[in-house]
């Protein structure tokens, strides 16, 4: 019985979350307006009401959509995605596939252009070929590999500099230690000489 109540509560609250208007959007009827709110790919809502019929995401700062974000919105008849700086690398594959499936009935592909990389700037996302997207992925991976190599080189150079500094410090410490030991020995030798002379003088006097 307790398990049944827990399952019922999860389904109930889950249904309420799916129908709630996401922040910071405004909702009225089936219209979900998230436009012109400076949303980014990380700050945009992670879900939308399942019964949404119109979704406005235009004029934001969105560069990519999470996989599956729009798949559960079967009632949509209008979507606006233009006015966003879409990044056409590996992350655009989901958006490209979704636009291709719905471009005829929703006209969602209109104004959805690539902002980067430079080789694809201005191109409609829906009409990108798979080869073009994969090429942009390779370009991105090359940049990542180069950046990783630079970071590794800087790290190794820093470690080498620390090692050299440690060796110099140890050699200097060893030299100072030898000088201190030699100075100590000289001081002790100088201190013992007067005592030996005094002893010899007393010995001669007693004779």
Describe the structure.
The chain has three helices and six strands, in the order H-E-E-E-E-E-H-E-H. By secondary structure, it is an alpha/beta fold. The chain has a domain at 9-128: Leucine-rich repeat, LRR (right-handed beta-alpha superhelix).
Secondary structure topology:
Blueprint: H1 2-19, E1 26-28, E2 31-33, E3 54-56, E4 78-80, E5 86-87, H2 93-106, E6 114-116, H3 130-206
Protein name: Glycoprotein Ib platelet subunit beta
Subcellular location: Membrane
Domain LRRNT: 20-54
Task: Describe the structure concisely for a colleague.
The protein has helices spanning 2-19, 93-106, 130-206, and strands spanning 26-28, 31-33, 54-56, 78-80, 86-87, 114-116. With 207 residues, the protein is α/β, with parallel strands linked by helices.
């Amino acid at each position: 019985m307790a398990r049944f109540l827990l399952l019922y509560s999860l389904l109930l609250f889950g249904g309420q979350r799916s129908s709630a208007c996401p922040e910071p959007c405004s909702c009225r009827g089936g219209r979900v307006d998230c436009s012109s709110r400076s949303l980014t790919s990380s700050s945009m809502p992670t879900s939308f009401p399942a019964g949404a019929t119109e979704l406005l995401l235009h004029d934001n700062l969105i560069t990519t959509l999470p996989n599956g974000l729009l798949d559960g919105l079967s009632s949509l008849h209008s979507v606006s995605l233009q006015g966003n700086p879409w990044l056409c690398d590996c992350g655009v594959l989901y958006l490209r596939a979704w636009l291709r499936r719905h471009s005829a009935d929703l006209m969602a592909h209109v104004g959805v252009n690539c902002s980067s990389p430079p080789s694809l700037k201005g191109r409609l996302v829906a009409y990108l070929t798979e080869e073009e997207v994969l090429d942009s992925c390779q370009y991105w991976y090359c940049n990542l590999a180069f950046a990783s190599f630079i970071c590794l080189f800087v790290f190794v150079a820093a470690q080498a500099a620390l090692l050299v500094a440690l060796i110099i410090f140890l050699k200097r410490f060893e030299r100072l230690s030898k000088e201190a030991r030699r100075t100590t020995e000289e001081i002790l030798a100088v201190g013992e000489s007067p005592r030996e002379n005094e002893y010899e003088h007393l010995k001669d006097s007693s004779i």
